[in-house]
Design a protein that fits this description.
alpha/beta; Rossmann fold; binds thiamine diphosphate; binds magnesium ion
Length: about 325
């Protein structure tokens, strides 16, 4: 394992953890409005898979996507300012937490509708195939999306047309408060690939090195014209579904047990065992990540709100009482 790669993976996960912690604090102070879905516990999935991708690959994600944008390279201050709804945000403050977008980095968004990422990914992959481009699409979704019609329609179409899509299930075992065995007849998501004559496998989503390796292999398969691939990452979220969730449907013991396999601690342990980095280097990465997050918060605080909230609204304003267009 290359030392530089390990360093990058550790830094990314530390940045992710501190960024989400800061976002939670800012939300509690009333600086972030709307819904806020955070990623602690799941860092190894976005970090391991996106570091295995090429810069030309497209990325389509759900509403739990701050970390994906950060790893893709969207500046942390632009992500934080977007959460604040400020003009310095990556979407000028119009999108907010669930709708990050960064065309320059081929980050096709943050989607709030469960199952929405599939058709968007299929569209991008179809374009790539038509133009014989070498790139792939990484399509993220939760375990709660696998019984949506769009999942089945899109996997079928992708397999039929051998589209270059890597489907990545972030299986954190919960669809809000409903545990996977209560919403799915088949809980091993990767097994569904066989219904579409597609390759699929499960990987330990708490082990960033395993996710990185599995994604490299899966992308190799997709990039070489073998059709799509379904990668299931077995993971866990530490916080409630969103900041509005009281998280009363699972025991503190369950959460504590899963925190025992924390992805950052696991990587640190491996780094110590292999002697890849010394403790001073790890501490420096942690301090750097904290500084970047503090700067991102200051930037967001100082960034003004968008001047014209209606700037990108194309519908004519309606008179809400009469229904007539004004
Ligand atoms: C079509 C649709 N139905 C319901 C919802 C409400 N909803 C928002 S998130 C969510 C749970 C999704 O769970 P999962 O796909 O496992 O993703 P996770 O939040 O665990 O990352 C639901 C049902 C929605 N946004 N879209
Ligand atoms: Mg889930």
């Amino acid at each position: 394992m290359q030392r530089d790669l390990v360093k990058q993976l550790l830094y990314d996960m530390l940045l992710a953890r501190h960024f989400e912690q800061a976002a939670a604090e800012q939300y509690q102070q009333g600086r972030i409005g709307g819904f806020l879905h955070l990623y602690p516990g799941e860092e190894a999935v976005a970090v391991g898979s996106l570091r295995a991708a090429d810069p030309g690959d497209y990325v389509v994600t759900t509403y739990r996507e701050h970390v994906h944008a950060l790893v893709r390279g969207t500046p942390p201050e632009a992500v934080m300012a977007e959460l604040f709804g400020r003009s310095g945000g990556c979407c000028g403050g119009y999108g907010g937490s669930m709708h990050l977008f960064d065309a320059q980095r081929r980050f096709l968004g943050g989607y709030a509708i469960v199952g929405e990422t599939f058709p968007v990914a299929i569209g991008a992959a179809y374009w790539l195939a038509m133009n014989e481009e070498p790139d792939c699409v990484l399509c993220y979704f939760g375990d709660g999306a696998v019984n949506q019609g769009t999942f089945h329609e899109s996997l079928n179409m992708a397999a039929l047309w051998r589209l270059p899509v890597l489907f990545i299930c972030e299986n954190n075992h919960y669809q809000i408060g409903t545990e996977i065995h209560r919403h799915s007849a088949v809980v091993e998501v990767h097994k569904r690939a066989c219904a579409y004559a597609m390759e699929g496998r499960r990987v330990d989503g708490m082990d960033v090195l395993a996710v990185y390796k599995a994604t490299r292999e899966a992308l190799h398969h997709v990039r070489n014209g073998n059709g799509p691939y379904l990668l299931e990452c077995d993971t866990y979220r530490y916080r409630g579904h969103s900041m509005a969730d009281a998280d009363a449907y699972r025991s503190a013991m369950e959460v504590a047990e899963l925190k025992g396999r924390d992805p950052i601690s696991l990587l640190r342990k491996r780094i110590r065992e292999e002697g890849w980095l010394d403790s001073d280097e790890c501490a420096a990465l942690d301090a750097a990540a904290r500084r970047v997050v503090a700067d991102a918060v200051s930037f967001a605080e100082q960034s003004p709100p968008p001047e014209d909230l209606h700037a990108h609204v194309h519908a004519r304003p309606l008179d809400l009482y009469s229904g007539a267009a004004r």
